[in-house]
Specification:
It is a single chain. Helix 3 packs parallel to helix 5. Strand 7, helix 6 and strand 8 form a beta-alpha-beta unit. The longest helix is centred in the middle third of the chain and has 19 residues. A six-stranded mixed β-sheet has the order 6-7-8-3-9-10, with helices on both faces. The protein is about 40% helix and about 25% strand. The chain has nine helices and ten strands. By secondary structure, it is of the alpha/beta class. It binds adenosine-5'-triphosphate (ATP). Adenosine-5'-triphosphate (ATP) binds next to helix 1.
Length: about 250
């Protein structure tokens, strides 16, 4: 992958007391790639995401995004700069329709932009139009007017991704988008992420190796808070250090 650098961390660290959940992580994410973080349980993947989105303040290191140092910027400002993380099902408005959920997510983004650039929201873009574009993209057309709570689990997870898209991000962060999904829904989500990779830069945390290997451009393997190996799927698949990190967990 040879796109411009969209996100970069240097020496990223998050310590809880003496324990470093993230321990000196250097990540470079290039525009237009699907960049996946894998690693055994407790490797520090989710904590790394928290540091990127601003939910946690790193105890050391820097985060640069879209040409700016965002290490100390609040989460809303990062959304406004174009970083969007998938929400959890628990944050969908269960009684509101799919379309209303997406409209609200699109609206929330303008508030975030105002904050990021220190200026008030001046125009009123058509948030319903954004919602409808996403509904098409997710192929939820037949269900746009159903309450989100009436969707199947798999469809709700797809809608979560849609909520993140409503922010019209440069970088989309997806933390285990297939977790808890039935075997029938997994290919739908996999195809969706693969397609999103054409238009967005995607950072993914995923445990399902067949998904990881089939859609990632770059894989970063984390182990005990550090980067163990990084490279394209073929390189990672055949790396002995990766194999033993996973086996060591058993
Ligand atoms: P999984 O695949 O199981 O989700 P992960 O790679 O996402 O794992 P993290 O959730 O980032 O791992 O956790 C990394 C380590 O940090 C774990 O050992 C975890 O117990 C620890 N940890 C996470 N949050 C806290 C906290 N608030 N206080 C102390 N330790 C924490």
């Amino acid at each position: 992958p040879s796109g411009d650098i969209l996100l970069q961390t240097t020496g990223l660290e998050l310590a809880y007391g003496a324990f470093k959940a993230v321990d000196g992580v250097d990540l470079t994410v290039r525009q237009g790639t699907i960049h996946t973080i894998i690693g055994p349980n407790g490797a520090g993947k989710t904590t790394t995401f928290h540091c990127l989105t601003g939910e946690r303040r790193p105890t050391a290191g820097r985060v640069r995004f879209a040409g700016q140092d965002i290490t100390n910027r609040p989460p809303e400002a990062r959304v406004g700069l174009g970083m969007s993380r998938s929400f959890q099902i628990t944050s969908l408005f269960q009684t509101l329709s799919v379309r209303e959920n997406l409209r609200l997510a699109a609206q929330g983004r303008d508030g975030a932009r105002a904050l990021a650039f220190w200026r008030p929201v001046t125009s009123r873009p058509d948030h319903l139009k954004v919602a409808d574009e996403i509904i098409d993209r997710l192929q939820l057309g037949g269900r746009a007017h159903l309450p989100a709570g009436e969707l199947s689990h798999g469809q709700q997870r797809v809608l979560e991704v849609g909520m993140a898209l409503a922010a019209r991000p440069k970088l989309l962060l997806l933390d285990e988008p297939t977790s808890g999904m039935g075997i029938d829904d997994i290919p739908v989500m996999t195809r969706l992420i693969g397609e999103l990779g054409h238009d967005y830069t995607v950072m993914l945390i995923e445990h399902n190796m067949s998904i990881v290997m089939s859609i990632s451009d770059v894989i970063t393997v984390m182990h005990q808070g550090r980067v163990l190996v990084e490279g394209p799927p073929d390189l990672v698949r055949n790396d002995d250090r990766v194999r033993s990190a996973y086996l060591g967990e058993a």
